[in-house]
Amino acid sequence: MNLRERLKSGILYLDGGTGSILQELGLKPGELPEIWNIERAEDIVGVAKRYYEAGSNVVYTNTFGANCLKYDGKDGRYSVEEIVCAAANNTRKASKEAAGDSSDRYVALDIGPLGKMLEPLGDLPFEEAVSIFAETVKAGVKAGVDLIAIETMNDSYETKAAVLAAKENSDLPIIVTNVYDEQAKLMTGACPESMVAMLEGLGVDALGANCSLGPKQMLPIAKRLYEATSLPLIMKPNAGLPKSVDGKTVFDVKPEEFASIMTELVGLGARILGGCCGTTPEYINETVKVTKNMELLPVIQRDNTVVSSSQEAVYFDKRPILIGERINPTGKKLFKEALRNHDIGYVLNEGIKQKEHGAHILDVNVGLPEIDEPALLKECVEELQSVISLPLQIDTTDIKAMEGALRIYNGKAMINSVNGKEEVMKEVFPLAKKYGGLVVCLTLDEDGIPDNADKRIEIAEKIIKRAKEYGIEKKDLIFDPLAMAVSSDSKAAIATLESVRRLTNELHVKTSLGVSNVSFGLPNREFITATFFTMAMQNGLSGAIMNPFSLEMMKAYYGYNALSSLDDNCTEYINFAGSIDTSQSTAKIVAKDSKEQYEGLKGAIIKGLKEEAGLEARKALETIDGLSLINEQIVPALDVVGVGFENKTMFLPQLLMSAEAAKSAFDEVKKTIAQGSGNKETVILATVKGDIHDIGKNIVKVIMENYGYNVIDLGKDVPPEDIVKAAIENDIKLVGLSALMTTTVPAMEETIKQLNEKKPDCKVVVGGAVLTQEYADMIKASKYAKNAMETVRYAEELFA
To answer: What DSSP state is assigned to residue 117?
Structure first.
């Protein structure tokens, strides 16, 4: 049995936490644990042996932070290859030396997050992240690891970068676990279903959750993951919540209680079990005892046709899905001009407006003969996915443009399109297999578009067969039987509708149509298009590429759902009907998204439109002074986004993009006011000694600056003495400290201790994945902030 089969066969045990054990063995605050692979190798071997002897089948190498950002081989520092090879050798040695049967033991290359946000939310380019991960993967392969374990990822985009690096530089099994909060969201907003869609599309071998939460809090996340995935489910929780006792980090769930709750996780579908922060070999041993004979839920091959963005998963099921068609130059003079002028703001506005008018997915086509389509499509996808949460349909016939866009897409995209021509399938299907995607399949071939349903079904069967040869399942195909103009062929609509019905009922596949083609050449086209749309839905249409601004189309859509028992209590229809503005001679839809009520500078900031925010600020400054603009428009707009973030209706990407838009407006204001006018107090931010993960600190910096505070950013891995010195020299009244890892929290405690002794009038706000209110209280922090907005609110209270 190979390892991929083993992942699906029976229960499999991973290891637990390493950091807390190393602390017990003498790891100092701020000391890099990966160095122990070389300098204290026997201790690392000893920890791994304890896990194997406790019952772990898979032990992770001590390489969580082993990347070239830390280990570059320069100035006396170890290289990534040196660290990884030593770590793999240590774990392999432990596997052989540990008591018991070693035949079912494996060594996993542990890959953790880089500690940087990827562009556009941060400053690390996507491809650079892939390259950094790739260096670690190559070293692991060279060292002979058995599988790659990507863990503790709180950003879907960074997760994708790591998976691509693993796929492109090895053929080893890949398992992935992400960090969810109690609302079942990643830091950047992804939900379990969107992560499943992306990771299954990328072809990983098992997926799940680790860190941040205890086993009890992971129960609802496990349930959602199992119900969505076709892969083995991993659960690797913390030992509850951390607290500090006599300067040491301890957790509040003991081994027996932990193991008891792990049986509940198994009952919800988990079959690959381990622990994270605070867990020790005793936790694994207790878990093995109570779960080894449990009956496991099967790994079910879910028949879900789904696409995803960084935040949302959209399923093609009973309710038809609306694919907005407006980001396409065909027949759109203004859009063509915008593309020629490289007006990305126009593209973003088209996307935002379609979302506000009810689209579920956005088609993205920027194909014009005179432009660089690969470059522009990639740019538009990057920009759109940074401000809009909807999944995208990559629409191009340029295979280079298609691959470039799919590679940087943060989710599982629709791919438009393939057809029955062999050369097209040969180009597109390998891309779909590598990057994942829902492939739109046009029922045409070398002979053109058939005029009857029989031939279209025949082409569809051919496409299904060829896709299977590339490893693409039927659920990842959606068929477009092509709507043709009834003005030139009165039977065209009948052939298309029959094709939709037969594709749905006979081949059991999903269908999509560009419905507006049917009315080409006729007056008042929307009347025909909307009627055809209704008929197509009645015949089983799964999705339509359409204009969500069209009142007739939206009437047809909401009316159909209400009449087909797809709209409980007709709620959506009633809301839609209430959105129709009948005060004018021609009724129109008023966007239902609450952001629509904000226009001008406020609207640009709330929607995260950087260029538009700058333009609106310049216009506003012609009639209003800078300080008034800040107080009356910029800060109130940020408050709207902040409240949305706190209420979980907006997520980190929107928060940061709105902050960037606000910065564009601030830059315009700064040109008109004296240096320092209107600035608030100065604060210090730092990631504590030994911790290079500065994502949280950087997010707080961006938001604090946009609220007018001067920020002294001391960076990452900052010794307590340096923080205290800066606080005294600048007479700072508020310091913000961040830590991601349990091994670095003692450095945070020491920093607070020194600040309290040497700068007692200085308050300290702390945050980070491993912190809790209780923990913050124990290390005598002034405030525990769960997110960036809580830090802002505390500063506002402090300096009021």
So the answer is: P
